[in-house]
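Trying the structure run again after the queue cleared.
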Amino acid sequence: MATLEDYRLVFVGPAQGVTAVGDYSEDFVNAVRPHFGEVVEVRTGGPGDDTVAALRGLRRDVAAHVAGGRRHRVLVHAELSTGALAPFWSTSGVKGAPVTGTVHDPPQGVWMPARTEFVSRSRLLNHGIHYPLRPLSRAIEGRVYAGRLLFALTETGRRSIAETYPQTRTAYVPHLVRERPTIRPAHERPRAIGFFGHVYRGKGFEQIVKIREALSDDIAIRVAGRGTEDLPAIAGVDVLGPVDGASEDAFFASVRAIVVPYGKRHFYADSFAASGVVAHSMAYRTPVVCTDWGSLAELDDRVGAAVVSTRGLEGDAVAAALAQTIASVVDDEARLVELGRHADDTRQARSTANTASAFAAEWSALLGLDAGQPDKGPSI
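Done. Tokens:
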């Protein structure tokens, strides 16, 4: 009986460094590669990068890669995220191969299906088109996804996809945790907290000022990630900007916990994305203090996260609630040890190898294949 090793995977996703989804794509495609006989990559830009001509070219590329594989032995998989047109449009209407996708901002994949390079030049034009036409965008996506297997990286996200697009098949596989060096345990690190990740709406970086004011001065705050270098200077906050390699290791080794103060990302509708920052923290066995916004509500101490209920709270009250929990976690050695141990357990359970095996099992079931795959360790 055939296995995935008899298949060509045509993988469509952003290039590494192009948003957090691009970084995820790089880890993901390398993790699933051993399960397939061949992997062909079509790497794309980010939101607002593509012209109509470029999209047509990418559609031709995907179609050519499908046609170039053995008949009935090709699978297409796309990484779908807000405003990133190429993975969505280049895999719509594919003939000759099943198409699956990971939806990074459930319940919808692209949300803004007309956000070309020209449209993205104007916020007024972009939202003037997409906001009033939300039902149309949802319907377009539903037509494209009908009959497809869609993955979500949170269970809340999976349920939202199933409710929005009942004609799809859905699966939940947790956000992968990449391999990172083992650093000293959280309770042995400096008395500091960190904010990490790409800067964009909903990430909660605007909360840093109020959290700084609410915390004791002897608890340091360090901020790192793409775009953080453009944040305004804040007294008592050390802003590092982008960090990679050894500088990233040093950043995580300098904080006892990472704060994830997420809130509503956009005004279109609620979305239930997984947090790449949480996954990255787990990679370094670093506890997380987060709000219960969206899919963060799924987290708890058992995965290394102290979750702060923010229901009914706004603005300064959210910052105050976070600061209270931050202080209690940072100064409680026993709690740090426990959270760090659970973060390490999560790191191992959601390793790239285990994540790849979970996707491979779903793909094999979809294709009616023998599930016998390379031994990648225990399932998630």
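Residues 373-380 have pLDDT under 50 and may be disordered. Worth checking whether this holds up in the mutant runs.
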